[in-house]
Specification:
By secondary structure, this protein is an alpha+beta fold. It is built from 3 helices and 6 strands; from the N terminus they run H-H-E-E-H-E-E-E-E. Strands 2-1-6-5-4-3 form a 6-stranded mixed β-sheet, covered by helices on one side.
Length: 151
Amino acid sequence: MSQTSWRGTAEQMERTIRGYFDACNSGVAAAVAAYFTDDGTHYFPPGMYSGPFVGGPAIGERWAWAVRTFGSRWSVDSFIGDPDTGRAVIEWTHRKTKDDVVLRGDEWYVFDLRTGLIREIRAYYASPQAAGMARLELAGFPYAERGYPLD
């Protein structure tokens, strides 16, 4: 993805996210990595993986592994974008074709307003609450630093 391609429109944001999903489905790690800023971070609910994935190469390697291992295929099911703030939200479906498993969820995207690259993804899954957990929030996400209420 060229760093001069950012146009700052909702349509460009949607094209970027759909292009990112196409790259994920390709199983080519470098294609995925090209959609992220150097410090791009992908957050997940607690207990998933070993925390956030940091950097396009790490994100790309993980999704390439998922394609090889599970036959993963992802789709963007709906999109809302705000180009003024560089934020977007999507609903997605993840099909693990080798295991006949379907996962659904939402992701919040934060774009770098200078380049149009993805700086952050916050993934939320449609699943039951984890028993015994007092705080059901994204693992590793800096809630306090971002001004979220803590009580």
